[in-house]
Amino acid sequence: MGAISTKITSACNAVITCAAWIAALCIVPISPCAADVDPGMSFADGKGIYRFYCYQCHAYSGNARTLSSTYLNPRPRDFTAETRDSLPIDRMLDAVRNGRAGTAMVNFDSVLTPDEIEAVVWYIRDELLGNPDSAEKYHSPENGWENHDRYRAAFPFVEGEVRLSTPFDELSAEQRAGRTLYESACVSCHDQPNSGSDAIVWETRAVSFPRRHYSHREAPLDAVSGASPYARHEIPVVPDNMTEQQSNGMRLYQDNCAFCHAPDGTGQNWIGSFLEPKPRDFTAVDFALRDSPDAFREIVKTGIPNTSMPAWKHVLSDDEIDAIVAYVRLAFGR
Question: 18-128 in CATH: which number?
Answer without folding.
Answer: 1.10.760.10
